Every structure is written in structure tokens, then in C-alpha cells.
Task: inverse folding
């Protein structure tokens, strides 16, 4: 029985993810709340879902013709892009390419979300 309790404790600890995965194994002792309604969630009670979301930019290269790139100076184009990004933070730049987050939802909010996640 002790082995089962230890395994359950590890599973509960692993379920405590922070929104931006800054503490992916849940070592922190922060209280969990539903990210939709704010209900208090209790690990081990089976009253919530851990939802991991991963989003990334379209990996397909652009469809360019020779006419599209004719007369473009690659160095000048790189300089233009760097200037365009100059006032953006590292996080803003990364969010345009890739973002991963983990949220917690109570049972009621999960059922509403899973039926229409794009709502």
C-alpha cells in the first residue's frame, strides 16, 4: 500500500504545472486554480484536467518565384528585418514562432472547452 501512496504522490506532484511550464515537475507548492473560472483545484481529488497546448508558426517555406527574389539584396533584407525587430523583446519574437503552455481546467470548464476549444 505504501508503494501505491508514493506513486500517487508523484503523480499529483507531476500534475502541478505552471502556465508557462516554468516549473514543469510542479516542485512549487502554489495552489491550483481553474484557468477559466478560478475554482480551487485539489490534486488527488480527480476534479481537474491538465491541458497542454503547443502552437507553432507554419513550417512550410514560402512559395517564391525568381521574379519574387530578383533584385533583392539579401544583406539589406536582413538589416531591414533586424531593424523591424529591434524594439521587440525576446519573448515577443519567440511567441511569433512557438509557444507552449499548460493550463488547468475544472471538470465543468474542461467539458465546455473540449467540445469547442476554439471558442
Result:
Amino acid at each position: 500500500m505504501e508503494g501505491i501512496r508514493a506513486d500517487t504522490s508523484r503523480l499529483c506532484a507531476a500534475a502541478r504545472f505552471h502556465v508557462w511550464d516554468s516549473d514543469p515537475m510542479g516542485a512549487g507548492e502554489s495552489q491550483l486554480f481553474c484557468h477559466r473560472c478560478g475554482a480551487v483545484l485539489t490534486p488527488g481529488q480527480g476534479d481537474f484536467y491538465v491541458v497542454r497546448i503547443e502552437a507553432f508558426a507554419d513550417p512550410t517555406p514560402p512559395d517564391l518565384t525568381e521574379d519574387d527574389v530578383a533584385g533583392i539584396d539579401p544583406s539589406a533584407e536582413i538589416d531591414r528585418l533586424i531593424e523591424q525587430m529591434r524594439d521587440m523583446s525576446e519573448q515577443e519574437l519567440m511567441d511569433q514562432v512557438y509557444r507552449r503552455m499548460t493550463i488547468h481546467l475544472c471538470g465543468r470548464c474542461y467539458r465546455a472547452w473540449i467540445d469547442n476549444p476554439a471558442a
